[in-house]
Automatic annotation (TrEMBL), chain A:
Domain Aminomethyltransferase C-terminal: 902-987
Identification of the protein by name: Sarcosine oxidase subunit alpha
Limits of the SoxA A3 domain: 513-594
Family of the protein in this entry: Belongs to the GcvT family.
UniProt source species: Flavimaribacter sediminis
From TrEMBL, chain B:
Record SUPFAM superfamilies: Folate-binding domain (SSF103025)
Domain of life: Bacteria
GO biological process, one term: sarcosine catabolic process
GO molecular function terms listed in the Swiss-Prot or TrEMBL record: sarcosine oxidase activity
Descriptive protein name: Sarcosine oxidase subunit gamma
UniProtKB/TrEMBL annotation, chain C:
Name of the protein in its database record: Sarcosine oxidase subunit delta
Lineage, top ranks: Bacteria, Pseudomonadati, Pseudomonadota, Alphaproteobacteria, Hyphomicrobiales
GO MF annotation terms: sarcosine oxidase activity
InterPro entries noted in UniProt: SoxD (IPR006279), SoxD_sf (IPR038561)
Pfam families: SoxD
Organism: Flavimaribacter sediminis
GO annotation (BP), single: tetrahydrofolate metabolic process
Length: 995, 184, 102
């Protein structure tokens, strides 16, 4: 048995297809196709959650994504768990575990419900006013408590093992909503030859036809027509039908985001299936066929479990075969709820009364009610409901006085709100229609059109006709004009017009009852009136003060009621008060869907160099440098980082070291004006650099500050091989392109990134030449033929090479550039020569120490975007005679030539064992009162094995005039004394490099 | 005697596939980045034996089909020679103003082929890749996931995905993950 | 994601291929070394930052690589026109009447 309230013969599910699931520890049986809500209702469970603020017992309100109450924690296993899932959307599957939320210790007995008794204290604005004083208590007491008590579900604490997929699509026509309107529009567009995506958030097509069983379309039952039409569309090559797919965001230029729930309804999904799929659709035309959402009646205690929307009760009966009660009261302000009442009565459910606020319902309804034995109480109101965990009776006030009618469910309908959310997200402005008292789409600001219920159309044939015309016109707009003859005859639907908004009779301003407007955020009519009394006159303020419509359901059922109550309190008309803007997402979207593929290894590209496998084999520890993985150091057995780096540093200076320098940016600058261009980009002059020679260059931004640096080699008169810092590679190329394309477009020169063309193997140290000599062909490596700062082309290990004689260590050294695919083989050959000589592989840490020993700066570490070449002691690199270069004027700015600027200097700690912390501040007098006057900070600091002491570089105000001075670095536990020195700590004369 | 260095391509061993799509590494090809003003286009085309196309998003093939020239920008072409021939030498003979840079080792490529090829790329490429908008022979620098690629449509169901060498793991990883999704 | 018409590729391309590059039509002085502090201030620091129509530079960095100029409405985010570097500012009146972004 799949629940005592399942009615034999009713609904569309197959009784034999049973599904077992767990809810709050109990095992239940549902049917395949059930939502969690329908399955629980079938089992007589109405109590599904506790409300957010007052912890009031709550049942299910709706049968779709508008549901504010029945939020569940759904899990497959401990990692696959999602909180705040609407029970009305979640389909049951074998083995599913569901749990109610916001209650402790149990749903039936919840300690937090004490808030309900204290509710006079918890009116709107309560937090703002109450927790103001004393100030300190906010942080220590109030906030932690409020945060602990608030919130809905609990986030999972394990990594999500599911995967998510992404797809960009371009279509002629996107149709949102697969009800009568959407299906008709999609059919018209598709038959005209347009490519079409039709999406619907439900598990299948049909929309309102799921419950509105009185509809006949083209001679078929409406729901059957919908299934046949969806099947027909699915079979067409130019159509994609996406069910369980919510169009949640409508962005600029008809870019619509859809989230498809792929596996959440399957008990044992194939592991290759993504849990969800994000579709980012660019459509030439968007047809919005999103229908309308029913509003509940606002009356005292209207949140009792068992009180729900009339259309929802009809859906549970006609689609799921579930009676929401055995004695169902009806409370309505329009005709549409009568259909639900009649269906229930015909299914054998007792309907003791229809309470109608109006004097007279629509034509023929009274006689049908009489035929079915239903008492219709016109000009009446439900003014109360009893029953804490399930409604037990409703109190009716009307012509016959006050009566109490026992019921175990109460279905209500205040009217229908066109679902204009996506239209509003498209930046369209809704317009108030005074005749039908609804907000409807106004002018379309994007290539979209609204059809059917969401456009305020109430007649079914009118809806179909409008949708066909819209689908046809959308296809024509996209240039698809196949002959179309499509006529769909439809009749018998409920009327979506009429009704009321705001609080019903007995729930007016004089009432003290709890009349809920927004169930999810526990906002009552009283709260909204209070907000107005407190001076909130704009609907935006009322919304924020009360939080009406601010829960995750975004006020789908509550916004219009809230607005009506605010308008009434303000004594203004609804359109004067205005509607708040709808923003994405229409319903909550998982982070999984949003990030989709970009997680784990695909979160960010990890760039690997040619040497990665080799370095790994050599035991390298890698560090992240931007997106690059670079070998950091190469520990040998028993070595920690300090020991490994010390050994590497000494070995390079004593013997030699091999280092992968490939990540340095490389740009090939080619053309007759290449030198002229470099003259404009760098501070240095390039005209006189001979082919085969290299030079260290500095480039500035226009403001005069150092932007990047690197060695530039002239390969030929019209060809330079430029290197940049690793991190600077993309932006330096962009900077150069910018100047070339927009400021100096007449120069005959082009730039090409060659960063990845070349594998760069640095061999540095006294034995560098001995190591590479046996491998090199066609290049004279002698000091005379190939001095420091020169470049030669030839072969190494048979591969073409650009061999640089350059040094970032102060040792004689080479940087072997070979086409990258040869890199690993050449490196292995180099290593074969190097290892027997006692050389080592070294990583970025040793590179940093060795360059610091020589006082070479690293742009971005020793400079920070406010350092000029003069500040860095690199004034020599500025050509004196050039008429122009980027930064030439910036360098002359008053502040850049003023005295007292922070300048780069060396620091030696008085105690040579003490290694300063990078970033530490420097002061002249450590005994001055705080806040101290800071002179600068440490930019680089290392233990130098070759100097046998600590070394550091620092930016210090007036630093170059402080040589020999003692300064202080105050730390939390001590103050460190330092001496200001030059920046070269090792081989001050720089003789070794020529060795 | 020193052994001649062997080439090792980063996509070695990177292959994946499903019933509807395969991802295979492209063999080594030589590649040239050509930058030139209009007057050099015809002589360069003659020298290279393939027309440097002048329309955006188009490519041209040499007579034997082994050499392709891709329009990447108004003065920029990527020439790919699948036989691995030297492309610098023929350009060196062209006197008209141009810049040729060898990038044979900067780029590598994956071939994505099969009924599901377009869908695989649509997992990460925001361009319209329908046959109407991106016909056979179309090519473009664009994005795939978080990295820049050059896409070429070799036939209705085959794309060449050119990208920088160091992004190989990412590009392969992305496509291999994308093709797990059976919907095409 | 916006679509931006690249005047070099001659079609609309997804925003992911582009990078914004600051205000357009700020020419670098040809006598850069000699301009006054005030002129440098105007050139380097002062930007119009309008509410409404803005002239901007963009680069089709992951496409053809070209810089180009655009007229964009900073209120609606809409591109009114894009045009090649070096071309004059388009006539705004005609654009606002047409307003189709090409």
């Amino acid at each position: 048995m799949s629940g005592a309230n399942r009615i034999a013969g009713a609904g569309r599910l197959t009784p034999a297809r049973k599904v077992r699931f767990m809810f709050d520890g109990e095992i239940y049986t549902g049917l395949e196709g059930d939502t969690l809500a329908s399955a629980l209702l079938a089992n007589g469970v109405h109590l599904m959650g506790r409300s957010f603020k007052y912890h009031r017992p709550r049942g299910v309100l709706g049968a779709g994504s508008e549901e504010p109450n029945a939020l569940m924690d759904i899990s497959r296993d401990s990692a696959r768990r999602q909180p705040n899932v609407r029970a009305t959307v979640q389909e049951v599957f074998e083995g599913m575990r569901a749990g109610s939320q916001n209650r402790w210790p149990s749903l039936a007995f919840d300690v937090g419900a004490v808030n309900d008794m204290l509710s006079p204290m918890f009116a709107a604005g309560f937090y703002y006013k109450t927790f103001m004083w004393p100030k300190v208590a906010w942080q220590k007491l109030y906030e932690p408590f409020i945060r602990g008590a608030a919130g809905l579900g609990v986030a999972p604490d394990e990594p999500d093992p599911d995967h998510y997929s992404s797809r960009y699509e371009h279509v002629d026509v996107l149709v949102v909503g697969a009800g009568v309107a959407g299906l008709s529009a999609a059919l018209a567009a598709a038959m005209s030859g347009a490519s079409v995506i039709l999406c619907d958030e439900q598990a299948g097509a049909g929309g309102a036809l799921r419950y509105d069983t009185d509809v006949t379309i083209d001679g078929d039952n409406g729901y059957d027509w919908a299934q046949n039409t969806a099947a027909k569309l699915t079979a067409m090559d130019n159509v994609r039908v996406l069910t369980r797919t919510t169009a949640f965001g409508y962005y600029a230029q008809n870019f619509v985001a859809l989230c498809e729930r792929v596996t959440d309804h399957l008990s044992d999904p194939h592991p290759d299936l993504p849990r969800e799929r994000l579709w980012q659709v660019r459509a030439q035309k968007v047809v919005l066929a999103t229908g309308a959402i029913e509003r509940h009646m606002v009356f005292a205690d209207n949140d009792r479990p068992g009180i729900m929307l009339a259309s929802a009760a009809r859906a549970y009966l006609n689609h799921y075969g579930v009676a929401v009660g055995s004695k169902v009261g009806v409370y309505t302000a329009n005709d549409s709820a009568y259909a639900a009442a009649f269906d229930l009565a015909r299914a054998g459910v007792s309907v003791p009364a229809i309470v109608d606020t109006r004097d007279a319902p629509g034509e023929g309804l009274l006689s049908t009610a009489a035929d079915l034995g239903i008492d219709v109480m016109t000009a009446s109101a439900v003014v109360g409901a009893k029953g804490r965990r399930r409604i037990s009776s409703m109190t009716v006030e009307g012509g016959r006085g006050k009566t109490q009618i026992p019921v175990d469910a109460l279905i209500t309908s205040a009217g229908w709100t066109p679902a204009v959310h996506l239209y509003s997200q498209s930046r369209g402005k809704v317009v108030w229609d005074p005749e039908t008292e609804r907000f409807l789409p106004g002018d379309n600001v994007q290539a979209s059109v609204s059809v059917g219920g969401c456009n305020g159309v109430t007649g079914l044939q009118e809806t179909v006709d409008e949708a066909i015309a819209a689908g046809r016109s959308a296809a024509l707009g996209a240039g698809k004009s196949k002959r179309l003859s499509l006529r769909i005859e439809a009749a018998g639907a409920i009327d979506w017009s009429g009704g009321m908004s705001g609080s019903a009779r007995g729930a007016g301003a004089d009432s003290t009852a709890k009349t809920f407007v927004d169930f999810q955020n526990d906002v009552t009519a009283k709260d909204i009136r209070l907000a107005v009394r407190e001076g909130m006159h704009s609907i935006e303020h009322v919304k924020r003060f009360t939080t009406n419509g601010m829960a995750s359901d975004q006020g789908k059922t509550s916004n219009i009621h809230g607005l009506a109550i605010a308008a009434e309190s303000l004594g203004r008309q609804m359109p004067e008060v205005g509607l708040t803007t709808f923003r994405p997402p229409y319903t909550p979207v998982t982070y999984g869907a949003i990030v989709n593929h970009s997680r784990g290894k695909l979160f960010d590209p990890a760039r690997k160099t040619f040497s990665h496998a080799w370095s790994t084999k050599q035991g390298a520890v890698f560090e992240d440098v931007g997106n690059w993985k670079r070998a950091w150091y190469f520990p040998r057995a028993g070595e920690d980082m300090h020991a490994a780096v010390s050994r590497e540093c000494k070995t390079v200076r004593e013997t030699a070291g091999v280092f992968d320098a490939s990540t340095l940016g490389k740009i090939e600058v080619v053309g007759p004006d290449a030198a002229k261009f470099l003259d404009l980009i760098y501070t240095n002059g390039w005209q006189k650099l001979a082919p085969g020679r290299c030079k260290y260059g500095i480039m500035l931004r226009e403001d005069g500050f150092i932007y990047d640096d690197g060695v530039v080699a002239r390969m030929a008169e019209d060809r330079f091989h430029v290197t940049t810092t690793t991190g600077g590679a993309p932006r330096v190329l962009n900077h150069m392109e910018d100047y070339l394309q927009t400021e100096f477009p007449d120069l005959d020169v082009w730039l090409t990134s060659t960063t990845e063309q070349w594998a760069v193997i640095a061999v540095q140290g006294p034995k560098a030449r001995d190591i590479i000599a046996p491998l090199v062909e066609g290049i004279d490596l002698s000091n005379d033929a190939m001095p420091h700062m020169s470049v030669r082309e030839g072969k190494i290990c048979g591969a073409p090479t650009r061999l640089f004689r350059v040094s970032f260590t102060g040792e004689p050294g080479y940087e072997i550039n070979v086409p990258a695919h040869y890199g690993q083989a050449v490196l292995e050959a180099v290593w074969k020569q190097a290892e027997p000589l006692g050389a080592c592989a070294y990583g970025t840490e040793t590179m940093h120490v060795l360059r610091a020993e020589k006082g070479f700066i690293i742009v971005g570490q020793d400079t920070d975007g406010t350092v000029t070449p003069h500040d860095a002691g690199l004034g020599w690199a500025i050509a004196k005679s050039k008429p122009d270069f980027v930064g030439i004027r910036g360098l002359k700015r008053p502040d850049l030539v003023a005295g007292g600027r922070k300048q780069l200097v060396g620091l030696k700690t008085k105690n040579p064992e003490t290694v300063l912390e990078e970033g530490a501040q420097i002061v002249a007098d450590p005994n001055q009162p705080t806040p101290m006057t800071m002179l600068g900070h440490v930019t680089s600091s290392y233990w130098s094995p070759n100097c046998g002491r600590s070394i550091a570089m620092a930016l210090v105000a007036g630093g170059q005039d402080r040589m020999g001075d003692t300064l202080y670095v105050p730390m939390p536990d001590r103050t460190i004394e330092v001496e200001v020195t030059g920046m070269v700590f090792f081989d001050e004369k720089g003789e070794r490099v020529n060795g | 005697m020193v052994e001649t260095a062997a080439m090792i391509l980063p996509h070695e061993g990177n292959a994946a596939g499903t019933g509807v799509v395969t991802i295979t590494p492209a063999a080594f090809a030589s590649r040239l980045s050509i930058r030139a003003r209009a007057e050099a286009v015809a002589p360069l085309s003659r020298a290279l034996g393939v027309k440097l196309p002048d329309a955006p998003k188009t490519s041209a093939k040499s007579r034997n089909g082994k050499r392709t020239a891709l329009w990447l920008g108004p003065d920029e072409w990527l020439v790919i020679d699948e036989a691995g021939a030297d492309l610098m030498a023929p350009c060196a003979k062209v006197k008209q103003l141009h810049a040729a840079v060898d990038i044979s080792h900067r780029n590598v490529a994956l071939i994505v082929s099969g009924k599901g090829a377009e869908a695989a790329l649509k997992a990460g490429c925001p361009q319209n890749l329908s046959l109407e908008a991106f016909p056979v022979g179309a090519c473009s620098r664009t994005m795939l996931g978080k990295v820049e690629v050059v896409l070429v449509r070799d036939d209705a169901e085959t794309f060449r995905v050119e990208h920088w060498r160091s992004f190989s793991d990412y590009v392969f990883g992305f496509l291999a993950e994308a093709i797990r999704d059976p919907v095409i | 994601m916006l679509l931006i018409y690249c005047p070099y590729c001659q079609e609309e391309r997804p925003e992911l291929e582009f990078a914004h590059a600051g205000e357009a039509h700020i020419a670098r002085p040809t006598n850069m070394a000699d301009i006054s502090d005030e002129e440098f201030e105007t050139f380097f620091f002062i930007r119009s930052n309008p509410k409404g129509l803005a002239y901007e530079r963009w680069r089709h960095v992951h496409g053809c690589g070209c810089f180009f100029n655009a007229v964009r409405d900073t209120v609606s985010d809409k591109f009114l026109a894009t045009y090649k570097t070096g071309e004059p500012k388009p006539d705004i009146d005609s654009l606002t009447k047409k307003g189709d972004g090409k």
